[in-house]
Structures are given as C-alpha cells and as structure tokens.
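Reviewer 2 asked us to include a model.

Predict the structure of this chain.
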Amino acid sequence: MYTDFDDASRSELAAAAYVLAESCKKFPTYSALSKQLAYLYDATLTSYIDYAWSSGRTVSLSSNFLDNSYALGGENLEAEICDLLCECLLEPNADNGAFDESSFNIARAELIDDIDSVINDKSRYAAKQSSKTIYAGEPWETPPVGTHELAEKVTPKAAYNAYGKLLENARISILCSGASDFAEAEKVFTERLAGLERGKVCMPRFIPSKLKAEPAVVEDAIPMEQAILMMYFKSPKVYDRYAVFLMSMILGGMATSRFFTNIREKQSLCYYCSSSPNRAAHGLCVNSGVDPRNIERTKQAVLEELRDIQENGVTDEELQNAKLNMLNIYSATKDNPSAVVNHYYRQIADEKTLTIEETCEKIKAVTAGQIRDAAREFKLDTVYTLRAPGDGEEDAE
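Predicted model (structure tokens):
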C-alpha cells in the first residue's frame, strides 16, 4: 500500500502495521495467530514499512506459504492464507475506534526495540544519522518508522486512526509470485476488498532531493573499531535511471569496480567501498569503511574516480562487465519468488511497470555516452563521517 507522509505520523502508521501482522479479531493474540500459521504448514505473516521510489512510503502485509500441490491433506492453502491476510487487514483486533490495548502495547514495544536496535549496526546507524543532513527538510530525513520519541507517544487510538486513513487513501497493490496461477488469490481479494470504502487515492509524486549550494560536512563519534565515510551525490535536474545503475555498478557495485580495484586493492585506503543509487532522491551514495587516518585520502580518491568518468567516460570492458553483472542479477531473480515480488514492489509508484525481461532490455540499450552524461550531472552534496571519539584525523603515512 502506497501512501503520502501527510496522511499520518510515521510512528503511528508503523505501530498500526506491527499490530496488523500480530493479531486480528478472529485470532486476537500473537499466540493464536502463530498457532494458525503453524497449522497452515508453518506459513509466515509479516508487515513492513519503508520508503517508496518516490516522495512517499509503502506499508506491506505479506505471507510466504506452501503451494497447494504440496498440501498433504488437499487443503486450499492459497485461499486460506489470502483470507487470513484479509482478516488481519480488514478485521483488526480493535473496538471503539482503537486497537486492543494489550496487543498494541506489545506491538509498540517491538517497534521501539527495532528503532533502537539500529545502534548495533554501525552502517545502519551511519545511514540514519547522515540522512538528517542529506535530506534536511525532506521526507527521507527521518526513518519511515519514526523515532523512539515519536513511537513512545503513539496511542492505540492514534494508530487506529492512521490505519483508517491508510485503508481509505492508500494506493493498494497485490503482488503474487510462485508456481500457482493465483486464481484463488484473485477470487479472495476481489470478494474481501470489494466492500472497502475508499476516498481520494494517493498518487505518487517524484520530488528529487535538493542539492546544497555547498557540500555539508558532518562528523559523529561513537565507540567503534573503524570509521565509516559516507559521501552523497545528487543529480536533481536529470536522472537517467539505467545509466545511473550501471555507473554505480562500475564505480562500486561489483568485484571489478573502480573503488574495489583502485581504492581498496591498489591503494589500501579502505576495508570496503561501495556505491548505491537512490532513484527517488536522484542520489548516489558512496559508503566506505576506513581507518580514521585515511578518511581524507579516501574522500579524494572517490572524487577522482567519479571525475574520471565525468571527463573520460568508461571503457567498453567496464560497460560490458557492468551489464553482465546486472543481467545475471535479474536472471537469478526469476528463480526466487520473493525476489520477483521485490522487482515489482519497487515499481508500485511508477507509471509503467516493467517485466524483468523488459528491464533487461533497458539495461542492454545503455551506451557509454549515457553513463558519462549521467555522471556529469552528479555533484557532491554531503560528506558524513562516523568514528570513535578521539580518533586522529591525520592521513596515514
């Protein structure tokens, strides 16, 4: 389900999503719901909230289950699971305009634990902290689930109100992948969602992140063994999606990438150095694990590699290797039902949905000139460093 950030606070909707995946009127406790899932051959039911590929967010309720052909007793598992998803979505454990307090308190505690757990993963922590500067004043500034402080203030009624707005205004997509033709799923969802009262459905808005007049430089300190250097580049005016994907692959997305070969192996400046694009924000993030003494040299090395592509482009060999890597990734996607769903999930805010085969054709058509032109649009926006307190700043000899 795709929705704007204006519909409800982040933590209110996140808390609602947690409740929906753990109980419903028919199975009012997590124990009862878990017992039903175990009966259905240990099926799973989870919720997830994240940014969409636009200035919005997505709330997902999903299940993995055994295909009907493998049910020992001939059970219609597809129909039962889809009906259970609808029970959780349409008939939550709530009364009088508020979620059941006991179920809500458990879900909110899990939400807060998940928010707090980011400190245990330094890379996630660096991404969270750097976003405050990279996306200041924009939707991506704060995690899609909100903050510890916001989550603590959420009430069962506020979360239920956010849930109600979600059902009324969200753009709903149903994604299925597996051996089935999913006729049973189509039947169940058609019948159960037919009575849903809808208002003005949210439509995607693509708003690139604003490029700062001058790059922001931010440093944080927490106890850790090494330092993390994050460099964020933006291209707010022009964004050639597939050219940027391949450019990112050539810079730091494969074993033969420039960052791995030139910065890690030849110069020994970092433990890792990777790049990843952000299509929604028109951004490119370079993430490095470095010795604190090598921060400045690593920064300059990254800038030199990007500048070289901007001025001289990429070689035919680099382009071919990047295309083969991406095509192999998409080829493997077809063997994994969850990966297939993720392929379409990432497009739910797009005007046109491309199949895996159509996406591969787009990748094959990219030229070296397109990659050079795409690289020229990117400018440095933010340099973020996370290191241990008191680490020296001098470059290594």
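Residues 2-193 form a domain with the Cytochrome Bc1 Complex; Chain A, domain 1 fold (CATH 3.30.830.10). The first helix runs from residue 10 to 20. We have added this to the supplementary material.
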